Amino acid sequence: MPHLAYVNGHYAPHQMASLSIEDRATQFSDGVYEVCLYLNGHGVDFTAHMDRLDRSLAALSIPAPMGRRALALVMDRLLIRNRLRTASLYLQISRGVAPRDHAFPKPAPAPSLIMTAKRFDCDALKRQQAKGIAVISTPDLRWKRCDIKSVSLLGNVLAKQAARQKGAGEGWMVDADGLITEGASSSAFIIDQAGCLRIRTLAADILPSITRRAVLDIAAQQKITIDHRAFSLDEAKSAKEAFIASTTAGVTPVISLDDQMIGHGQPGPITKAIISRHWDHMQAFFDQPARAPSASRMAQRPAR
């Protein structure tokens, strides 16, 4: 089974793929990323992911390394070369390679583009959704522009590690006012005692999650009352239900927070209904004709 990465116009085995030691992603976290889910060879909410990538690049004044159609073709080829149809694909774009200096280099270097892909296990996700996960609270230590999907993720790493050390599946980060912002790698939702779906309003301290948007669309279709208002740790612990949402976690129930049971300690009815509708959304991609490798596409040279 091939295990290939893409680095700046070349496909190479993972153990041979590398970036320059002076790439600004490695020295300054001066770059952005996306994680896209492919089902049966089709990108889920692909346009939304590319729109967010463009916004992140623009916020950091990093030029796109290629046009969107060319980028989509490279992503497609990476999956084909790895013989993957249902997979998660990681894409990272940095400002490029330049002698180390904090200010933007002049002249501007060519941006660096790397990609990796791995098989996505839908059955494992469904098993997790059926059980739910435990969550812990942790201080929000991130920078102030979390709306940019930057590769600067040390605060997220520390939150996730704190959760792992306590046997939890996610860490919910809490700001200086005692309000939950989001998870280390997911959006945070609760169903409060009034039956409202609570979610913090988008701002600079929140990533505009693609799955968050899908959940809100589903909730609106289901006539679920949506309250765009931050919630405290105590409100989350006393919620009827809670769940996280992300590209690779889908919609996953939260059954406890800081070892305190949420609701009845099992996935609640509103959460399960949203999960069902979200899988309907995902199934639409499975139902499209499979995109099989072709000799002509494999023979084309990668976009530069």
From TrEMBL:
<comment type="similarity">
    <text>Belongs to the class-IV pyridoxal-phosphate-dependent aminotransferase family.</text>
</comment>
<dbReference type="GO" id="GO:0005829">
    <property type="term" value="C:cytosol"/>
</dbReference>
<comment type="pathway">
    <text>Amino-acid biosynthesis; L-isoleucine biosynthesis; L-isoleucine from 2-oxobutanoate: step 4/4.</text>
</comment>
<comment type="function">
    <text>Acts on leucine, isoleucine and valine.</text>
</comment>
<keyword id="KW-0663">Pyridoxal phosphate</keyword>
<dbReference type="InterPro" id="IPR036038">
    <property type="entry name" value="Aminotransferase-like"/>
</dbReference>
<comment type="pathway">
    <text>Amino-acid biosynthesis; L-valine biosynthesis; L-valine from pyruvate: step 4/4.</text>
</comment>
<protein>
    <recommendedName>
        <fullName>Probable branched-chain-amino-acid aminotransferase</fullName>
        <ecNumber>2.6.1.42</ecNumber>
    </recommendedName>
</protein>
<dbReference type="GO" id="GO:0009082">
    <property type="term" value="P:branched-chain amino acid biosynthetic process"/>
</dbReference>
<dbReference type="InterPro" id="IPR043131">
    <property type="entry name" value="BCAT-like_N"/>
</dbReference>
<dbReference type="GO" id="GO:0004084">
    <property type="term" value="F:branched-chain-amino-acid transaminase activity"/>
</dbReference>
<dbReference type="Pfam" id="PF01063">
    <property type="entry name" value="Aminotran_4"/>
</dbReference>
<keyword id="KW-0100">Branched-chain amino acid biosynthesis</keyword>
<dbReference type="InterPro" id="IPR001544">
    <property type="entry name" value="Aminotrans_IV"/>
</dbReference>
<dbReference type="GO" id="GO:0008652">
    <property type="term" value="P:amino acid biosynthetic process"/>
</dbReference>
<dbReference type="InterPro" id="IPR050571">
    <property type="entry name" value="Class-IV_PLP-Dep_Aminotrnsfr"/>
</dbReference>
<keyword id="KW-0028">Amino-acid biosynthesis</keyword>
<dbReference type="InterPro" id="IPR043132">
    <property type="entry name" value="BCAT-like_C"/>
</dbReference>
